[in-house]
Write a structure and sequence with these properties.
The protein has helices spanning about 225-235, 265-280, and strands at about 5-15, 25-35, 35-40, 45, 50-55, 65-75, 80-85, 90, 105-115, 120, 125-130, 135-145, 150-155, 170-180, 185-195, 210-220, 245-250, 255-260. By secondary structure, it is mostly beta strands. It has a domain at about 70-280. The strands form two sheets. Strands 3, 4, 5, 7, 8, 10, 11, 13, 16, 17 and 18 form an eleven-stranded mixed sheet that branches. Strand 14 (about 170-180) and strand 15 form a beta hairpin.
Length: about 300
């Protein structure tokens, strides 16, 4: 009998003076993890002190019944990016057991609290769901009106290199971003999706494309809407040289982008280019492609992301 995991990661991000230069404030972290989640070596951007946090799932893959819970508190004025060390695999669950032919769901829950003037980016590598895999992810984000939150979600449905599709597997996703004051809770963005069955083949769904991705950026309140509209035009121009169907639209306070197609690399490049533009817009450093991500070429080729 297979025993399921319940891995946890509790992460606190806060500003602290650098030990090398007391005048240079860097974001540092405190963390507590339980298997199979583990933090790898954390880096700081030399220019702006942003913390780069690689999160490892050490079990080699997710099976039905596994649960992952990730809690992040980004304290006032902190700036950080959290990513994963490798693409995550979700093994098939349906039809694997005579006792439970319908399979078991694997679940990941993320709770992010982003405090005043904080900047948090959640950019894991892609999720690969094997045929018959059942995976549900729920992300809840409480954000201060002065803060910024950017996240990327990228999934490949089936091991297409081996001729495999998702089959009777299911991928579900829920993202809720809200701010809160003494009077009420205000939702900035709500996105609920399910990819399964007819939606995998329909012209109103994926049209048999195996890769789906989303990028969501929630801006601080008070951003100039004309400047944000100009940024949207620039984001749409970043599709040059990439394969797949890409869309980008304005939110009330931010930008939402989608990708459907066959190329994980094109999706990653598309989102990287938009990410770079949001950094320029915030007068921050254009990101370097992260040390732990696989890379074959420059994602900014044919793209203009300079200030």
């Amino acid at each position: 009998m297979t025993t399921s995991w319940h891995g946890t990661c509790d992460l606190r991000l806060f500003k602290k003076s650098s030990s090398h230069n007391t005048g240079n404030l860097q974001t540092t972290h405190q963390a507590k993890c339980t298997a199979p989640l583990k933090l790898m070596r954390v880096f700081n951007d030399k220019n702006d002190g942003r913390c780069e946090i690689p999160l490892l799932h050490s079990a080699g893959g997710i099976v039905g019944g596994d649960q992952l819970t990730i809690n992040v508190t980004a304290e006032e004025n902190s700036s950080a990016i959290c990513t994963s060390v490798a693409a995550q695999k979700v093994y098939g669950s349906r039809g694997r057991s005579k006792l439970n032919p319908q399979g078991n769901w694997a679940n990941q829950k993320c709770f992010f609290q982003i405090e005043k003037n904080a900047d948090f980016e959640w950019m894991p590598q892609e999720l690969i769901i094997y045929q018959g895999g059942l995976f549900e992810q729920n992300m809840t984000v409480k954000i201060d009106h002065s803060s910024s939150f950017l996240c990327v979600d990228l999934v490949r449905l089936g091991r297409t290199a081996a001729g495999e599709k998702l089959g009777n597997g299911i991928w579900r996703s829920s993202l809720e971003v809200f701010s809160e004051n003494t009077e009420r809770k205000k939702y900035e963005f709500i996105d609920r999706l399910e990819l399964s069955g007819e939606a995998l083949n329909s012209i109103h769904g994926l049209e048999e494309q195996p890769v789906f991705g989303s990028l969501t950026w929630i801006t601080p309140k008070g951003i100039n809407q004309e400047a944000l509209s100009d940024l949207l035009v620039k984001c749409r121009h970043q599709r040059a040289g990439l394969k797949g169907f890409m869309t980008c639209s304005l939110l009330e306070n931010g930008i939402s982008a989608r990708y459907t197609g066959s190329s994980t690399q094109s999706a990653r490049f598309w989102f990287y280019r938009i990410w770079s533009l949001t950094r320029v817009f915030r007068k921050s450093n254009v990101p370097e492609y992260m040390r732990i991500w696989p890379m074959q070429e420059d994602p900014l080729t044919d793209a203009e992301c300079s200030s």
